[in-house]
Amino acid sequence: MSGAGRSPARASSPATPGGGFLTVDGIRVRYRDEGARHQPPVLLLHGIGRSLEDWEGLYGRLAPDHRVISVDLPGFGLSERTAGRYSLESIARFVIAALDTLGEHRPLHVVGNSLGGAVAMKISALEPLRVRSLVLANSAGFGREVTLALRVLAVRPLGRRLMRDKSRRVAYRTERALFSDRAFVTEERLDHAQAVGGNPVHDEVLLAVARHLGTFRGVRRRWRTELLRTIAAQHKPTLVVWGDEDRILPASHLEHARAVFPHAEFHLFEKCGHMPQIEREEEFDALVRRFIGGVEARG
């Protein structure tokens, strides 16, 4: 997202332990910060149009042994938007500035879902020493194919028209596309989706990010190729996971990930959609804990 038009962002205002809001370069951003500050840090990054609630399962399991940080990316969740053009680099730089605000400068284990996975990789590309390992869950960046809804959002007039309908029916359709099992589309999730969609800057930010990352034909090749080449050369501990019934970014992208990241570990969740951290919560959390623990054991 656009370098906020103020790149690099300046960090300010003290953070409240546990979570709440902090100010980064004049932008009010919601965050969550759990666990002891001396423990190894983990950063959780959500997907496009989503919020930090998507990581609910990981907090309790990781916090006893880690400092666990998550943020609503600017313009999403309950965070304000940044000024200027949105880009993958600007989102990543803003997250880095938020970490500075929280006083966290150590190398992190970064866990990202969808857009959050691409942001995680971009952080590592921009500041390699700040990323110790990567967990990429159904991450953007491994292929051109993407759901029609996001391709339509990349077309300015069509995207704006699509965003006008704020009905419960549309919220259900959007949430339903994320999961293999419709049981995960709960009334609580629909309530939250409509609350997040009510953020006054949500629509313009969603459209800006969709246009930056892709076109009606799919995810842009240039940023994908450059980013994957950079991350592959870093040879950092990396875990790539996918749901085999992902309707947003197809599981075929996992095969490309295997080709470009031969050093990584991989896992495919069966009967699972775009959000394994929710739909396969215990399995996903155990896998992430085991991976992070292995990285830490190797020093």
Secondary structure elements and their pairing?
Layout: E1 11-12, E2 18-24, E3 27-34, E4 41-45, H1 56-62, E5 67-71, H2 88-101, E6 108-113, H3 115-126, E7 131-137, H4 148-153, H5 156-163, H6 168-176, H7 187-197, H8 202-213, E8 214-215, E9 218-219, H9 221-234, E10 238-243, H10 253-260, E11 265-269, H11 276-279, H12 281-298
Parallel strand pairs: 4-5, 4-6, 6-7, 7-10, 10-11
Antiparallel strand pairs: 1-2, 2-3, 3-5, 8-9
Helix pairs in contact: 1-12, 2-3, 3-9, 5-8, 6-7
Give structural notes.
With 299 residues, the chain is an alpha/beta fold. It contains twelve helices and eleven strands. The chain has helices at 56-62, 88-101, 115-126, 148-153, 156-163, 168-176, 187-197, 202-213, 221-234, 253-260, 276-279, 281-298, and strands spanning 11-12, 18-24, 27-34, 41-45, 67-71, 108-113, 131-137, 214-215, 218-219, 238-243, 265-269. Strands 1-2-3-5-4-6-7-10-11 form a nine-stranded mixed beta sheet, sandwiched between helices. Strands 8-9 form a two-stranded antiparallel ribbon. The chain is globular. The chain starts with 10 loop residues before the first strand and ends with a helix. The relative contact order is 0.15. The model is unreliable at 1-15 (pLDDT under 50).
